[in-house]
Amino acid sequence: MIDVMGSSTHMVPITEARDHLREIVASLGDSTYMLVRHSRPAAIVLSPDRYNALLERIALLEEEAAVLHARLHPEDADSLDATRARLVKERAT
């Protein structure tokens, strides 16, 4: 088990996950399951709440990056508004 950003990640072989999918889904909560094939990551299973929280965090970080870019590059004065508009458009799709 790996601890990532306050939630535990369980590494499970795909063959085992296939046999225990109901239990895995029922126990998700804040946990994440990394399904592995031949000791390599093959898929990630996480709850819808965790997935949405990660998407929100990405959106906030993109916004912060756009603001920082605008502050560091004032010559691109329109870049902040353009970046915000692009981010809003991307989130809508």
Summary keywords:
93 residues; alpha+beta; YefM-like fold; 2 domains; 4-stranded mixed sheet; 4 helices; 55% helix
What does this structure look like?
The chain is of the alpha+beta class. It has 2 domains: 2-46, YefM-like fold; 51-92, no CATH class. 55% of the residues lie in helices and 25% in strands. The chain has helices at 14-19, 21-26, 48-72, 79-92, and strands at residues 2-4, 7-13, 32-37, 40-46. Strands 1-2-3-4 form a 4-stranded mixed sheet. Helix 3 packs antiparallel against helix 4 (79-92). The longest helix has 25 residues, at 48-72. The chain is elongated, with a radius of gyration of 19 Å.
How is the topology of this model organized?
Elements: E1 2-4, E2 7-13, H1 14-19, H2 21-26, E3 32-37, E4 40-46, H3 48-72, H4 79-92
Parallel strand pairs: 2-3
Antiparallel strand pairs: 1-2, 3-4
Helix pairs in contact: 3-4
In short:
With 93 residues, this protein is an alpha+beta fold. It is built from 4 helices and 4 strands. The protein has a 4-stranded mixed β-sheet with strand order 1-2-3-4.
